[in-house]
Design goal:
Blueprint (H helix, E strand, L loop, with lengths): L2 E3 L10 E4 H10 L7 E5 L4 E11 L2 E11 L7 E7 L5 H12 L3 E6 L8 H22 L7 E2 L3 E2 H7 L5 E5 L8 H6 L15 E6 L7 H9 L3 E3 L8 H15 L5
Parallel strand pairs: 1-3, 6-7, 6-11, 7-8, 7-9, 10-11, 10-12
Antiparallel strand pairs: 2-5, 3-4, 4-5
Helix pairs in contact: 2-3, 2-7
């Protein structure tokens, strides 16, 4: 059954009225007909199985048959702090990260980011970013839409992450502490801590040119664990996806 996110007020009506791009997509693109059923998600955790009953130009009417809790959300809540990338690299991260299970994206502005003005990023890309996340969430059967935070400077992002249970920075020059060890409670000094299963996780990924030593030091001073992902070097748009999948697997969220 196809899934579509709608504002909560839409499914509070009886019958349900769909209009605009979604109605056009249902009737003109997907060519659904009266009697077909779709799943409408209100982005608050509920899913509504809805039977489409009438089509009129770019308007569709439907009747909610049942309401259930939306599925598809991981127990571990990963916030991906991803440095802005050249071209469509950041958009690729949004799409793949949404499919993998990231619950929030924080675009980072680092010293070695290569982009135009910050104003251009905020004003002209954000709407597109939200469309990409919505499409990926519907395709991958997510129950909620991942949030996209405003573009954030590296020092402020490191401070923001202090509110989460565990903070991780995969770095190509890191040695010793692995991602798996950090999740198991091993510290930078090699000591093992007793730790309950982390609920909220902040994951930091740098830009194509890498992080500066000063940025890594800022991360460490904010209790962010610098870890290695092994002997291979991943591209900036790949590292976050690899680390996200590894974290979810280690915590049992892919079972």
């Amino acid at each position: 059954m196809m899934r579509f996110f709608v504002p909560p007020e839409v499914v509070e009506q009886s019958p349900v009225h769909l209009s605009g791009p979604l109605a056009h997509r249902l009737g003109r693109v997907l060519r659904l007909q009266a009697g077909d059923r779709v799943l409408l998600l209100d982005n608050t955790g509920w899913a509504y199985e809805t039977e489409l009953t009438a089509f009129d130009h770019d308007a569709v009417e439907g009747q909610v048959l049942r309401r259930t809790l939306a599925s598809g959300e991981p127990r571990a809540k990963i916030t991906l702090y991803q440095a802005l990338l050249k071209g469509d690299g950041f958009e690729e991260v949004l799409a793949k990260g949404t499919q993998a299970g990231v619950v929030e994206f924080v675009p980072l502005l680092c010293e070695r980011c290569i982009l135009g003005s910050l104003m251009d990023v905020e004003e002209h890309r954000r709407e597109r970013w939200e469309r990409i996340v919505r499409s990926a969430a519907e395709q991958s059967r997510r129950g909620r839409l991942p949030r996209i935070a405003p573009v954030t400077m590296w020092p402020l992002a490191c401070q923001r992450a202090l509110r989460t249970d565990i903070r991780l920075l995969p770095w190509e020059e890191a040695t010793g502490l692995s991602l798996r060890q950090a999740l198991e409670g091993v510290t930078q000094e090699g000591e093992a801590e007793r730790r309950s299963r982390p609920f909220s996780i902040s994951l930091f990924i740098g830009p194509e040119g890498g992080l500066t030593p000063e940025e890594v030091q800022i991360a460490r001073s904010n209790h962010i664990q610098v870890v290695t992902l092994g002997p291979r070097i991943f591209k900036a748009e790949t590292a976050g996806l690899v680390a996200t999948a590894a974290i979810l697997y280690a915590l049992g969220d892919l079972e």
